[in-house]
Each structure stands twice: as structure tokens, then as C-alpha cells.
């Protein structure tokens, strides 16, 4: 009955141009229509998936802890929201309501809507159907829905929401389908093997059933930072390959990088399965940026180095900073710098130091060399700011900083051998990043000294016994091979280490003693124990004051034994 009603309304209103869900879209996904009429068209987005789309282990009251996302715990009055969230006990809106956290949970739609609204001058509406622990091959299967039968439920919710807009004579079009799911399919051999095929069938069914042949799909990458990203590395890799295979075959699909975002800190080892509050907020920004890029509205944060800071022919000391979530700066925010006495200047660009970076495993890459300054993807920064400032204060020698990080990686990803999850191997890209940095400086007429690789030991590895057991051996392999491949047998490595996670089953593995022995046998490897950093109250992660202090301590270590 609802299907017939929706079809009748569409047919009646099409001639008056009040609804536009079935019209052909331009390649960018934007309607070709111009003028104010297009600006008043409500952009409808569909959000669907499992627990990391629901917002599991998130808390709306924690939004205040993350300065760039302040205010997202409050209703967004200009954004319509229709939702059905959960499995047995569903939280459901009665038609359209105002976008806000549901039952105190944070979903990616909150930051997505604000980010899109900042750059698209049009009304926004979001329809969300998500339930944890569900599969594409079962619950979401459009042909033979099993389990909680989420495909027909979601289709009914979307159709009803669109019909309500039709009745209100609200001009609208469906702009995109945001999908984040797959963790549960990876546990079943058949589901895992068929994921790309099932995803293609899923997209085709939605396009058919909504009459939207050019509906765009945005496929969220699975989180590799949690315990599942470590314990089920091979299975998660297979799902990721399935996602990429589908996207490669569908010109209207986009792969959205999310493996580097924050995750909930919990459990005995400090690792969890879910993004939690911060990760959900960053997850939403990633989906928003993917959409904004498609429609040509993604802002470009230009940070040009207007004047090259070094005299031609001068020798420049190049420091390469590398590592995981804390070297990336997962929980250090520019807005919090003002709260740290005498550190407000770190938020300003320093044109005396040329800076280039690749963070999040390539999620954000600098446009060549930029002035040293905050450049993280979410108003975040790493120890490079205080590191560079401390070096400049202590010495007049020209320095440059190149930073290569991936917050969702483990140490095995950095080894020359890599792992069975080949798409996560970082060593080749890291090596080329270092080489390219040297070449680029030389091309500008500089003599370059690679003064050291500054690496912060993998935090997540310390929280999971199989990884912790191999962490220092893996690090030794990276150090040895990098020296060989770069042709620098005496290349200095400065390795900082925060306190290893304390948890049952981990105490027998002592990476600190192993690293001390490695450094004692290698005069060109400095082991820096940073066990007293401020802002380290939570397991694994270091917040703004600790990251600033870490940079200063790393600079001190680099200046010693010069």
C-alpha cells in the first residue's frame, strides 16, 4: 500500500517540479538546475550499517571533551532526522524529527550534517537505519533477508520518509547512501568471500527499489585500530578487499577511509571494538568530506610556504617523525593549546621550518612543503609543533620536518616483510616518503642531512599479547632495513616509549627491558622513556599537554649526542 501511495504522489508532483528523487544526476551527483530553486532542494542522505554506524559505546556527554566537535550534543534545528536504530529494542522516530543524539549515543550523522551544512547552502535531511551485530549476507540481504530483516525495514523507513516530504510539498532529492558494515560478515567464510558481490547486489537493489539509478554509495572502511583489527587481521583484510573491489567496479561508489579515527578506550587491555564518541564524530567528518569532494564543495586548506626559508646551498637537517596514534595526535586539539600556559604560539604557522606530512596512512597529505603548523585532519596536531619549536630555540641550524603516521596501524605494518594483510603494509610507502623528502629538498638547492628518524613505539601493540611479544623484534627489523635501503648504516633512530599497558596476561611480556637491550647494543638507537607525560590518564592515548611535552622531550633527545 505504501509503495503504491509513494508512486502516486511522485507521479502527481513530478509535473510541478516539487520532488526530484528520480531525475538523472550530473556526473558530480549535482542536479544540473541552477538558481535559487536548486538551493532550496532538501538533500536527503541515507545512513545504514551495524554497530559502528549505530554509535555503540559512545556518550553524548563526552562530546565536550573534544573541542572541534563542541555543541554537537545539542539539536541541529535545521536538519531533519528520521531513524530506526537497534535490533530487538528499536529506537524509532515518529516520522521526521530534529537531528540530535538518540538515547545519549553519538552517530556519524551528527558531525556529517554540521560539516555538510557549513559548505552546502541547502536544507539537509537524514534517514538512518542501523543495528549492531548484523550481516550483509543475512539481515541486509535484499533478496532473502534473514535475521532482523533489515533491508525491507530500511526500505520502508526511507520510502515513508520521502513520502512525508512529498505530502509537505518539500522539494528534495536523495544525495547519497552512507554504509558502514562488514565486521560480522568477516566471521563467516561464505559471507566474507561474497562480500563484494553482495555489496554490489545491495546497491543495485536500492537503486532499483527507490527508482534512483544514479544513487551514490559511500562505503566506510572497517576500523583496524581495535582488537578485531589485530586479532582478526586476515579476515578484516579480506572484507576490506571486498569493499575496494566493489568500489572499483561501481563508478558511483566511493571508499571512505576511516581506519585511522579514534576508538573507544576500554576493556582490560585498553582496546575495544567500537569507535566510541570521538571516532564516531571523526567518522562522520570523513563521510561528509567524501560527499563534499564528489559535489565539488570540499574546502581546500591551503597552507602555502610563501617564502622558502633556507639559503640556497645551505645544509638542512631533516628529521622524520613516524609512528601511530600518539605521533599522529589522535587526542590533541588546537583549541586546547590556549589552555597550556606559554604555548599559544604553537598554534601559529612557523615559516622558518619547512614541513610535509602524510597522516592516517595517507588520509591527509600535505601539498608539498608547508610551514610547520597544525595540520591534522580534525584540528589535531602531533608532537612536531613543540619538537620544531624546541629545536629552533636551541640551535640556529636550518631544520625541516617530515611526518609519516598511521593511527590505525600496528608495528607489523611497518616491517619490511609486512603481514598477510598486504593492503596495510606501510614500509614501502614510508621508505619512499623519506626518499622523496630528501630529493625535494635537494632539488631546491639544499644539502640534506637525514638527522634522524623519530619514532613513537606502537601503543596498541602494547595492549595485545601476540603483538606486544613481537613489538621490539619488529622494530629492530625496521631499523636495520631502513638503514640498508637508505644507504645510511649509521642513521640515528630516536624511539620514544610510553608506559606499556598494564593488564592481566601482559605483565610477563616486558618490551621495556627488550628495548633497553636493543638500544644498549646499538649506539645509534636512542631509547627515550616518557613515562611521566601529563595528559596520559587514559590507557594508550595522550592528550594535548602530553603531546606538547612529548615533542619537547624528543627534541632534547635529538640534541643530545649530536
Key features?
eight-stranded mixed β-sheet; 562 residues; alpha/beta; 17% strand; 2 domains
What is the gist of this entry?
The protein has 562 residues and is α/β, with parallel strands linked by helices. Helices cover 35% and strands 17% of the residues.
- Overall morphology: globular
Q: Proportion of β residues?
A: 15-25%
Number of domains: 2
- Helix coverage percent of residues? 25-40%
CATH class type of the largest domain:
Alpha Beta
General description of the model:
The chain folds into two domains: 2-21 and 42-294, Rossmann fold (3-Layer(aba) Sandwich); 315-559, Rossmann fold. It is globular and about 75 Å long. α1 runs parallel beside α5 (150-167). The model is unreliable at 1-38 (pLDDT under 50). With 562 residues, the protein is an alpha/beta fold. It is built from 17 helices and 16 strands. α15 (465-486) links the parallel β14 (447-456) and β15. The protein is 35% helix and 17% strand.
Reconstruct the topology from this structure.
Layout: H1 2-14, H2 36-39, E1 42-49, H3 51-54, E2 76-85, E3 91-92, E4 97-99, H4 108-117, E5 124-130, H5 150-167, E6 172-180, H6 189-193, H7 195-210, E7 217-220, H8 227-231, H9 233-249, E8 253-256, H10 276-294, E9 315-323, H11 325-328, E10 350-359, E11 364-365, E12 370-372, H12 384-394, E13 399-405, H13 411-414, H14 427-443, E14 447-456, H15 465-486, E15 493-497, H16 511-521, E16 525-529, H17 544-559
Parallel strand pairs: 1-5, 1-6, 2-5, 6-7, 7-8, 9-13, 9-14, 10-13, 14-15, 15-16
Antiparallel strand pairs: 2-3, 2-4, 10-11, 10-12
Helix pairs in contact: 1-5, 4-10, 7-9, 12-17, 15-16
